[in-house]
C-alpha cells in the first residue's frame, strides 16, 4: 500500500540528506575572503524577470482586434501571482507594449479594450508593489506591423509612443514605468540599423518635447546575438542616445559550466561603459539556449535549469552586470510558451524547480545591494552581497564532491545566516512552494568566517536577509 509522508516530515528528510551530503568524508574546505573596499557594484538594480501583460487576454498574439468573451483566469489566480511576486520581492521587470493595442496609426487612440485593460492591471500591481518597469515597445516592422506606420523610423510612430507614454505616466500616473526600449531584439525585428537608430532619436526628441525625458529613460540596444555587432555599432554611433545599456543572452550549458560566461560579460560591460562609466549595464533576457525555440526550452522543468540559472546569475554579476532579468516570469504571458517559473492556468499554475533558485536570488540580493566578486576556487562560483549591513553569499558548487566553503564576511558576527540548498531533486520548500532554509542558522566565528556546506553540483544561498 502506498504511503504519503506528511509534508513537514518529508522536508526534514530532505534537509537531513542535504546536511549529510555536506558532512560526508568527501568534503573539501576552501576559504574565500571578501574585501569590502572593492565592490564590483555599489548599488545593484536587482534580479527580475520578463512579465508580459497578457494574463487577462490569455497570452494572445492577436493584437489587431479586441478579446471578446470570458477568459480562463480569475481574481484568485491573479492574487496567486501577486503573492509569489511579493514573496520574491521583485523590484524590476521588463514588460511588453504593442502600439497596436491602442492605435492603428491613424492618429486616434483607444485605451478601453482588453489588451490595454490587461496592461493596466499589470501596471497597477507594479505601482502598488514598488516594482520598476522597463517598457518595451515591440516594434512595428515584423509580426507587430501596423498599416498606419511606414516603419521604425516613421515620425508618427514616435509620436504615438509619446502619446501612450503620456497617457500611462502623466494621466494614469504609472510612475513605475522608468525606462523604455524601442523594438524587441532590433537586430532581428527592425528593418535596418539606420532606420532603428533614426527611430530611437525620433522617440528621444518626442519624449523631450512632451517633458518626459526626465521621467523615462531610453535603454538599449536589446541586441540578442553574440558577439553583438548591433550593440557595438550602437556604442560607437549612439553613445549619448541611451541612459543605460542592455543586451539579451541565452547561453549554452557548456559555456556556463566552463565559467567563461563571466569573461564574456566582463568584456561587453566594459565596452558598454567606455564612453560613460556611470551608465548601468543590464541583461534584459537571460536563459539557456540548448535546444531552445521561441516558445520552449526542453530543460525548463529539469532541476538542472535551476543550477544553470544560479551559475549564470553569479557569472553575470561578477562580469559587471547591474541587473539580470530572466525570461520569463510565468506561462500565462504568452499562449503556447513554457519558459516561465510556473505553468499556465490550464496546467494548474504549478511552480517549476527553477522558481526556487530565481525567487531566492530576487529576495536575498535586493535592489541597492553592494556586490563583491572574491577570488574563487576552481569549480566554485561565489558572489556576495551586502544590503543594510546584512550579508548574502551565493555559491554554486560545480564539483562532483561536497565542499565546505569558509567565507569571511566582515561584520557578520551577531547576524546568523540561514542556509538554503538546492541539489538535484532535493530542495526544501514550504506549503506555498517557497524556499525554506536547511538546518540551523550559520554563525560567524571570531574572524567573521562562516562555513557553508555545499553538496556536489548544488546552488547554495546563505543569507542574513529576512
Give a description of the structure.
By secondary structure, this protein is an alpha/beta fold. It has two domains: 26-40 and 372-463, Immunoglobulin-like (Sandwich), CATH 2.60.40.1180; 46-367, Alpha-Beta Barrel (TIM Barrel), CATH 3.20.20.80. Helix content is 30%, strand content 22%. The chain has eleven helices and 17 strands. A hairpin with a 2-residue loop joins strand 11 (380-387) and strand 12 (390-397). Helix 9 (260-272) crosses helix 10 and helix 10 (303-318) packs parallel to helix 11 (353-364). It is globular, with a radius of gyration of 23 Å.
* Overall average pLDDT: 94
User: CATH class of the largest domain, anyone?
Assistant: Alpha Beta
Globally, the shape reads globular
What is the second-level CATH architecture of the largest domain?
Alpha-Beta Barrel
Question: For the terminal residues, how far apart are their CA atoms?
Answer: 42 Å
Number of helices: 11
The Rg value, from CA coordinates, equals: 23 Å
Question: Can you tell me the residue ranges where pLDDT is under 50 for at least 5 consecutive residues?
Answer: 1-25
Largest sheet: 8 strands, parallel, barrel
Order of helices and strands: HEEHEHEHEHHEHEHHEHEHEEEEEEEE
By DSSP, the count of extended strands is 17
Percentage of β-strand residues: 15-25%
